[in-house]
Amino acid sequence: MAFAGDEDVEFPILCETCLGENPYVRMTKEPRGKECKTCNRAFTIFRWLPGRGMRYKKTEICVTCAKLKNVCQTCILDLEHGLPVQVRDTALSIQDEVPKEESNRRDYLAKMANSLEVMGDQPDFSGKAQPAGREMLKRMARKDPYYKRNRPHICSFFVKGQCTRGNECPYRHEMPEADPELAKQNIVDRYHGTNDPVAKRMLARTRSTDNKLDVPEDKSIIS
């Protein structure tokens, strides 16, 4: 049975931001190039440059895992709203059904992969049963691509005052945000919607302003 890395994938599942603004973007494709960071199965890796002056990006999770959560394979944000999974699932009262134990997760994903391939079934994240939550997501959603998220990462040597490459350095010469929580991000937590510091900050600020907050720039998201 075809599953995850064995899928015949011609193009990744990406959000507009990660894909970039270049309409002629070229991608490299490496079947079974790496393990999916959420299910540990080998999957097809895509790599591309989203625009001039940006950093190369690649897919981080397999197509099956992306479909199960309706997220981008690279930034792991919800495809409809551009928000963290934890924000979406909290607003819509969605429970994470993907087992975290490896043996149970393997069986669950095999079953869901077969369902996706044969039946075309895909989890419903429309929020039809949660109109208040869906309205909240509409207010928080990023309506336009945020291409600055594709910029090079900050140069760690510059932060330490040790970078000697000057203008030739491929990384950004600026200081990071003084928020230690944002440095604790990891893809597995972001995917499952648990302990995501970006999501926690957004939800806290939204609650404090009675759900009237404009979504902050997501420059803190690492992908």
Profile the largest sheet: 3 strands, antiparallel
Strand content: 5-15%
Total DSSP E strands: 3
* Number of contiguous helices: 8
Uncertain segments:
1-5
Main sheet: strand order? 1-2-3
> Looking at the structure, what is the overall shape?
globular
Give the helix level as a range of percent.
25-40%
User: How would you spell out the order of helices and strands?
Assistant: HEEEHHHHHHH
First-last Cα distance: 31 Å
Compute the CA-based radius of gyration: 18 Å
- Provide the residue-averaged pLDDT: 83
Main structural class = alpha+beta
Describe this structure in words.
By secondary structure, the protein is α+β, with helices and mostly antiparallel strands. Helix content is 31%, strand content 8%. The protein is built from 8 helices and 3 strands; from the N terminus they run αβββααααααα. A 3-stranded antiparallel β-sheet has the order 1-2-3, with no helix packed on it. Helix 2 packs across helix 4 (102-119) and helix 3 runs antiparallel to helix 5 (131-140). The longest helix has 18 residues, at 102-119. The two termini are 31 Å apart.
Name its key features.
223 residues, globular, RNA-binding, STL11/RBM22-like_N, mRNA splicing, alpha+beta, 8 helices
Summarize the structure in short.
31% of the residues lie in helices and 8% in strands.
List the helices and strands and how they pair.
Elements: H1 16-19, E1 27-35, E2 42-48, E3 57-58, H2 63-69, H3 85-92, H4 102-119, H5 131-140, H6 156-159, H7 187-192, H8 197-208
Function: Involved in pre-mRNA splicing. Facilitates the cooperative formation of U2/U6 helix II in association with stem II in the spliceosome. Binds to RNA.
Zinc finger (C3H1-type): 149-176
Domain C3H1-type: 149-176
